[in-house]
Amino acid sequence: xxxxxxxxxxxxxxxxxxxxxxxxxxxxxxxxxxxxxxxxxxxxxxxxxxxxxxxxxxxxxxxxxxxxxxxxxxxxxxxxxxxxxxxxxxxxxxxxxxxxxxxxxxxxxxxxxxxxxxxxxxxxxxxxxxxxxxxxxxxxxxxxxxxxxxx
Amino acid sequence: xxxxxxxxxxxxxxxxxxxxxxxxxxxxxxxxxxxxxxxxxxxxxxxxxxxxxxxxxxxxxxxxxxxxxxxxxxxxxxxxxxxxxxxxxxxxxxxxxxxxxxxxxxxxxxxxxxxxxxxxxxxxxxxxxxxxxxxxxxxxxxxxxxxxxxxxxxxxxxxxxxxxxxxxxxxxxxxxxxxxxxxxxxxxxxxxxxxxxxxxxxxxxxxxxxxxxxxxxxxxxxxxxxxxxxxxxxxxxxxxxxxxxxxxxxxxxxxxxxxxxxxxxxxxxxxxxxxxxxxxxxxxxxxxxxxxxxxxxxxxxxxxxxxxxxxxxxxxxxxxxxxxxxxxxxxxxxxxxxxxxxxxxxxxxxxxxxxxxxxxxxxxxxxxxxxxxxxxxxxxxxxxxxxxxxxxxxxxxxxxxxxxxxxxxxxxxxxxxxxxxxxxxxxxxxxxxxxxxxxxxxxxxxxxxxxxxxxxxxxxxxxxxxxxxxxxxxxxxxxxxxxxxxxxxxxxxxxxxxxxxxxxxxxxxxxxxxxxxxxxxxxxxxxxxxxxxxxxxxxxxxxxxxxxxxxxxxxxxxxxxxxxxxxxxxxxxxxxxxxxx
Lengths: 151, 581
Hints:
Shape of chain A: globular
Strand order of the largest sheet of chain A: 1-9
Helix content of chain B: 40-55%
Distance between the termini of chain B: 31 Å
Order of helices and strands of chain A: EHEEEHEEHEEE
Largest interface: A-B, 31 and 42 residues
Helix content of chain A: 10-25%
Distance between the termini of chain A: 18 Å
Strand content of chain A: 15-25%
Oligomer: heterodimer
């Protein structure tokens, strides 16, 4: 399965087109927060930008932490999200080692679904959908779920 | 948020408290330029001076801000220290999108803080905090402190002033996110008069979008037009500095205080030269995939042992013309050095450069001397201009304090008014001819962006007053529509009236979409009426003799045509203002 990667962030101009596209296309929101990819300046504007996004862990600590099954393991890394099952506990965000889960003011989590909808909106080709090379880690496992991304 | 009214946060710096105000008028004025004028009429003090504590600083966005690409500008409406009249200045960076996500159609700041302060606002907070420790600090340093102190990296906008703004300089800018500015007409001075060193806008809200797919589909189409076609290439490739060589070739570049309009040494500071020798990278305003911001680098050796530091400096045509061509500085790294100092001081680089160009010629002619300028100012001496910019920013002596109020004011005192290159304020980088000179002299913002006079000059050899007047009025009308949405003017070839209407409809602004021609004429009149109420009189604007001595590829400027067009445009402005009352 393919995952979203950001291999060319040194080209980023900080336009936020990717975040806005994710919020718009995936979550039907106008936002640069409620998105699976978020752009921050890395140590001030003079030093460029970094993308905060899911690294497609396998197993995914956020899925392991989720007490209700709202987050489940996605094949190839990352998670499948069922918003209807979410109780807004924030455990996913706390478990993520790279701060990829954004909690909105009401506690609703937003994370990359590796759908690739942001990719064509990047004017400098910073982003790329790549075949996952992740191999399941030996320790720990998360419940395997459907392959379709569900919101 | 999509709404048929305006949600305005009005902050009183004296009490440190604010009030959310709901204003009607979305279908009448849209936002941006229209909203700023509407708010000034409601909260402004037309008869009081610019530094009256109750004068508002109005930061306004429009109905399309953040919803479509290149809808990325904020309009600042304020009473200007430059001419003590209502004025507008525009900036991008993250300011517009941050205001959108702070859930504000406008941020209005009035009152004066008891001590140096900074304001922090967001969708869920408002704080006025002590900033005495930032007072006196240069622009970049303030940004770094606030960056550490405040949360929300990448999703906020930091507006701040430098020493020039603290001095109440009429050519002090408000720096936005390091590389953008509310540059012209002294917005920084107006902020300094309020004891307000900085404003941090946290864009921490989010909003639902229309449920049908029409909006997202239209967005994708507009995005594609802006990124896949060649239409925007000139802005992100060489950027606006491409004009340097073009204008030099057609004898239309102001050089050495407009004594010349073309010179061989300009080859050292063309857009091509900057791109090849200094360009480090590009940046973008939030919500704009074009990335027109060009950052050059300056490397400085500070030790014999090959020890260097480097700085990143944003460049454009206007700064290069102002502190390069106008000052006879024709080495691109020296130009970047000069731009960098204006950034530190928080000066409007265009006014600062053109004012120093006047000072250099006045020195040549013996009108002023080192007694005033502290060190000799001669064309091409970049080091001395660098020091002079610091004196101008800090207001070191009477001369520099007066010069910081405008080259025209200094010339009125010391002499040399004939060659003070002032068209309402210090000139923009186009010596294209009569139509541009009139367009800036009488334009609403006294900016090269009020209408495309420079472009008209390049396409028309005839000197037809009616035709030129019609162009100026119509072009301004079209631009007012864009600055009420609020679009970057670089997108003017994409956002034609029909597309703007489609964009508005996709968000549910049906009524607004159906009356755009009426709306732009209404806002045009409203702005002029607001300006005139604060004392503007077109007849009081004079165009210095130097502009009639200019020779372009069309030949010598026609003084009669210039005067006739200026009078006709002035009369028309009075008519527009009357209709707006």
